[in-house]
Each structure stands twice: as C-alpha cells, then as structure tokens.
Design goal:
This protein has ten helices and eleven strands. Bound molecules: NADP nicotinamide-adenine-dinucleotide phosphate. NADP nicotinamide-adenine-dinucleotide phosphate binds next to helix 10.
Length: about 280
C-alpha cells in the first residue's frame, strides 16, 4: 500500500509558488477576513498567514468584532474588490449567525474569490470556464496527479455532496475524464456503489465510518475528514479521518493519511490560487 504524502506534495506546491513569485517579481496580496474569535477559525487563519509569508505573498489581516454587521462586512469587501493591490480575498467561515454567508461570499469579486466558493466560481467550474476552484478538491486532484494515479477512464465514487467538497470534486474528476458517481446519506445500498470505485473520495464528516466493507481491493482511497481525538484514549493520536485507516489499508493500493494527507493541500492550493489571481490581473 502506498501512502500518499500530502505534506511533501503541499510543500512542493508552495515552493513552486514561492519560486514563481521570486523569479518574476510578482506582487500578490491576500486579504484575510476573520469575524469573531472562534478558536478553530483563528488557527486556520494563522496557518494561512504563515503560508503567505513562506510563499512571499503579502497577507492583509482584517480581524473584526463578533458584533460586526452584514452591511459593514459588505462595505469592507466592496473596498477590497476595488483595491488593485489586493489580488485575493478570503472570508473565514463560519460567520456569526446574524450574517448571511451566501451574501458575503457572493459579494467577493470572481477575479479575487481564491476560495472558489461563490456562485459565479462554482458555475464557471460546472461549464468548464476559467475561474477559481475550491481548494480542497483542487488539492485532491494534485495529490492524485503528482502520485502518478491515472484518473482518465477510471470509476470515481465520492461519498458526500457538500458544496465545498463533494460537488466540486465531482466536477473536477469529470474534467479529468473520470467516470463519476456522487453518493450521499440517502443513497441506497451504498457499499454496492463504493465497492466499484477505482478512486474513492470520502467526505462524510463521520469519524472512521468507512471501513474495508466499502472498498474494492486495489482502490485508491482519499480521506477528506478531520476529527479531533482524545490522545489519552487513542494511543496518543490527536486526529482521525472519515476512513478507518488500519482496516482499509489492508485492501487499498494507495491512501491519504490523517493528518498529512488532504489537510495540508488545502492551504497550498489557496497559495496557488492567490498567485493565479495576481497573474490573471
Ligand atoms: P458536510 O457539509 O457535513 O457534508 C457531509 C456529506 O456527507 C453530506 O453530503 C452527507 O449527505 C454525506 N453523508 C453523511 N453521512 C453519510 C453516510 N452515512 N453515507 C454517505 N454519505 C453521507 O461535510 P464537508 O464540509 O463536505 O466535510 C466533510 C469532512 O471533510 C469533514 O470531516 C470536514 O471536517 C472535512 N473537511 C476537511 C477539509 C480539509 O482541508 N482537509 C476541508 C473541508 C472539509 P447529505 O447531503 O445527504 O446529508
């Protein structure tokens, strides 16, 4: 069984971004907006800022109070949309309950929507037009390609149909000429479908749900899930995915671990998209 090394591949991508920025003297600048002080969001935002620093991308930080109104946030986004210096805008989710996330995300200019979450970016992906692609699924395509895994003609099954992972994943695998099936919580006899997969992407948000009974021998298994564990009850392990790794590794030909698989790729692709934003300008 081959372990797909997301940590190494994400470093490779960040190094490529850094080299391009240095070599061509590109000025890229990412505006990162955080509303409130959610601890997990604060960690994600700090990791994004560190990655910017590593790549030579300027990060502009907007840390706003929990009480910020939707109107104030829309005004900030409008200002950043118009600011030529800013090449990417990111608004960390989730937002406080009194703010409509959809309105905020759709207010970001498609030319700066480096998360690829707005309706215009998603629509562009669906019809194969140019636009930013959601970082997690884009990262999974890079993991497969850079690990020498053929997608064209292969049976690809995705578990989960969220807007940020499952659906864009389906579009991207289709673009790579995979034969794609999207499954979800209402899918009947789901194992009959997942057991046909040459490439199985699991994004169900349920710790260790997918065991070997879901997997065909020789399949490539991509685990998108991230869940915190109590290390004292789990032999020192702090994280697990949606896949029961120890059980599935007996059957799979290649797998992503958690941590060190899909997770690091998301930030690397954010850096890639921010560079793209600067180049397109
Ligand atoms: P989500 O919005 O909760 O969606 C979960 C999807 O799984 C839904 O479509 C749901 O179906 C489906 N599902 C739930 N139970 C199922 C079952 N028993 N069989 C088949 N499908 C089932 O989750 P998400 O945002 O896509 O995230 C999924 C996981 O990936 C989470 O653990 C999240 O933390 C992780 N994640 C990681 C990264 C990263 O950077 N590595 C990025 C994003 C997300 P219905 O639509 O029918 O409800």
């Amino acid at each position: 069984m081959n372990i797909i090394d997301g940590k190494a591949i994400s470093t490779q991508i960040k190094d490529e971004v850094r080299e391009k920025i240095e070599r061509d003297g590109i000025k890229a600048s990412l505006a990162v907006i955080l509303v409130g002080q959610d601890p997990a969001s604060t960690v994600y935002v700090n990791n994004k800022k560190k990655a910017c620093e590593y790549c030579g991308i300027e990060s502009l930080s907007y840390e706003l109070a929990e009480s910020t109104s939707e109107e104030e946030l829309l005004q900030l986004i409008d200002r950043l949309n118009k600011d030529d210096k800013v090449t990417g805008i990111l608004c960390q989710l989730p937002l406080p309950k009194h703010i409509n996330e959809e309105r905020i995300i759709d207010a970001i200019s498609p030319s700066k929507d480096v998360d690829g979450f707005s309706k215009l970016s998603v629509g562009a992906l669906s019809v194969g037009a140019k636009g930013f692609v959601s970082c997690t699924p884009a990262g999974i395509i890079e993991l497969l390609k850079r690990s020498g895994i053929e997608i064209s003609g292969k049976r690809c099954v995705i578990m989960g149909r969220s807007n940020i992972v499952g659906k864009p994943m389906a579009m991207l695998l289709l673009r790579e000429n995979g034969t794609v099936t999207l499954t979800h919580s209402k899918t009947e006899n789901i194992r009959e479908i997942t057991k046909t997969a040459d490439i199985l992407v699991v994004a169900v948000g349920k710790p260790k749900m997918v065991d070997s009974s879901y997997v065909k021998e020789g399949a490539v298994v991509i685990d998108v899930g991230i869940h915190r564990l109590d290390p004292e009850k789990n032999n020192g392990k702090k994280l697990c995915g949606d896949v029961d790794y120890e059980d599935v590794e007996k059957l799979a030909s290649a797998m992503t671990p958690v941590p060190g698989g899909v997770g690091p790729m998301t930030i690397a692709m954010l850096m890639y998209n921010t560079l793209e934003g600067a180049l397109r300008r």
